[in-house]
């Protein structure tokens, strides 16, 4: 009986150390994979999130300003057309008075 207990204890110790070694290998493999990903990302020259968000905000602001400018141009064109229309009407009235 004592012999069987000893064999089981030895097997438990071997299994325990094998599990510890497997956990250590897992940690080492994860570290190596992380290093490889970091190296690949560095080589790809990927933009950091903060920089992307800043440029996105700049682009949104530029788009809004462009839309505002387009509206102002449209408004100014309408005013100019109205003023030119008024000038043409006034010159027609002056021209018709001269012929009378």
UniProtKB/TrEMBL annotation:
This is Accessory factor UbiK family protein. InterPro entries: UbiK. The lineage of its organism: Bacteria, Pseudomonadati, Pseudomonadota, Alphaproteobacteria, Rhodospirillales. It comes from the Bacteria. It holds the Pfam family BMFP.
